[in-house]
Amino acid sequence: MTNLVEFDENTKTFHLHNDLISYIFQVEEGGLLSHLYFGKRVKQYHGLMKYQRADRGFSGNLPGSLDRTFSPDTLLQEYSSSGIDDYRTPAVIVRQADGSYSSRFQFDSYEIQAGKPMLDGLPSAFTENDSEAQTLIVTLRDEVTQMKLDLLYTIYEDRALVTRSVKVENQSDNEVFLKKIASMQIDFPNQKFDVINLPGAHASERQMERSRLNRGLRSFESRRGSTSHQMNNFIALTSPDATEDQGDVYGFSLIYSGNFKFEVERDPIQQTRVVAGINDYNFSWKLKAHETFQTPEAVMVYSPTGLNGMSQTFHHLIKERIVRSRFQNMDRPILVNNWEATFMDFTEDQLKPIVDDAKKLGIEMFVLDDGWFGHRDDDNSSLGDWYVDKRKFPDGLRHFVDYVHDQGLKFGLWFEPEMISFDSDLYREHPDYLMQVPNRAPSPSRNEYLLDLTREDVRENIINQVEKVLRENAVDYVKWDMNRHLSDIYSQALPADQQGEVYHRYVLGLYAMLEKLTADFPDILFEGCSGGGGRFDMGITYYMPQTWTSDNTDAVARQRIQYATSLVYPPSVMTAHVSVAPNQQTGRITSLETRATCAMSAIFGYELDLTQMSAEEQAEVKKQVEWYKSVRHLIQFGDFYRLTSPFEDNGCAWMFVSPDQNEVVVDTFQTMSSAQPLSTITKLVNLDPNKQYQDLETKKIYGGDELMYMGFFNPLYHHDYASKKYHFKALNRH
């Protein structure tokens, strides 16, 4: 294999490279690592980006040095620590045994390994063989405190990205406390940037925002115990002129599902620092003598071809090297979920007609949502009691599951395993399983409370209950929900000086549960959910190959949610359903066609009462199901490109294209109509300009160059919330 990582002994320079990118840094004076470059591939580095020395007022210098032109405060660094005259936000803060917060990590050694190591207890990107990637491990040491940092860098042979993480080892005989430990840092020289982030709220997740990066420190974070609806663990830095298809873009994301923080600081001389990792909010990790701590993995992407180029790199990594279940490349089933049809008010006999209609319409799976367990008629009870409610299923759940299977459908089941109700057998038997601060009443959220997943006995209880249900009832699919965020942060299993570990230990406990369940049930398709898209991240995707994108099923709102989500995540991990009109979240009335066009841009399903639809509506649903099946693999696993933005335009457009450029699906949407409508054009991308493409509806033929360079006029609609889908196939395929 070609060397992907090289070290120049003379210049002390590391160069990670493939045909797409180079990532270069150097051992500088004082043993500090100086960041030099991340961008398009350069064949060889000749010292052009050597640190420019200057005497800058109030920027301190190296210990024992009279050279006022070298300062850690202005050096572009790879990984900075606190207390060494670098006044910018640091990557690591350690409270030492003597009470100080000062560290000085200096270069010690390096190692280059074939392949990519897995991270203990944490999800991470993987390799299929050692020949597709190389990993550089750079060791830094603090000689005074005997702390060791291993900086892990992995570069793949054919991906425009570098993954990074940090392993800390306390090699002293004293205990220390990690107060902050980031997964990555990168410093950029003076250049103008915009920053893109994905804030939101419940039922309004990942609302793309873009702003100019000015001097000062900005943070994008979650302190809710999970990645949250309120902020996704992703940011991008872009050149000001970057668009979907041109300009430099640097994307950063974490393979992690808990509290996170991205800090972006522009210093007084216009240099930019990005630090990303576990949020240091209420974080304090006791590292005993000779113990280690591993950070989550960060993914750093570079694209010279705009946001779509960045997204393609993320999409392929997620589809090919994050999702690891047997469903990785498998077409996902079209389902109907009973939640918005029945909520918790149902019996087996009331559900069977929905199953019957699903079979008739070609739908492939029935999913039983909340309300099947304990004595659950509302959200005030039964979480933690994972046994079947005999009032609703007098012959047992398996009787109903067999009915679903006999109709030729798969069967899915909803769980919320991380939560507990006061009104539950589990709480009455084990009140200590509840996460709560001593002598304080815990705070409810959505009428539920949190189980202490930091404890192995709590996890084992829930795993045993869930596995019993899965084994006894031949379940094909699990929807794993989390309908509140973390509060009352305290674990009875930890001493007082380790309560700052609870947030992270909760996530590690969750991962341990998911590791066991997905290993024990490899043939079950798991879907993540957190009140919709409140825990939509690559950490969850490692265990569950798809995630419910939002509780908001309104097609107009979903265009913005799905568009922004696709900045990082491919359609193959997003689920989207057709629901009723007026929509139950927004009250908006949209056509069945528009609702389906939006939902068919991801993993497709229905969330309504099929039995209440008219004969005409059912006939339309049947056609939708047939059409989606014909293009399912293309939509779920083809290359996805955004064309026009719902954040900027009166609607949006996006497309799916096969890797061989022979098949294309395009979806266009218009939000509001007008008495004097504007003529708008949709231009496609990534087609073969030399091929002829036939519109399968009109049978008309167009050149790939026409579709890309000229485009076509969008229809002039005289009603709101319109949509149209196009399906092209190449005639001269090769």
UniProtKB/TrEMBL annotation:
Keywords: Glycosidase, Hydrolase
Catalytic activity: Hydrolysis of terminal, non-reducing alpha-D-galactose residues in alpha-D-galactosides, including galactose oligosaccharides, galactomannans and galactolipids
Domain Glycosyl hydrolase family 36 C-terminal: 652-728
Range of residues in the leader sequence: none
Keyword Hydrolase appears in the UniProt entry: yes
Database matches in CDD domains: GH36
Active site, UniProt feature: D481, D551
Name of the protein: Alpha-galactosidase
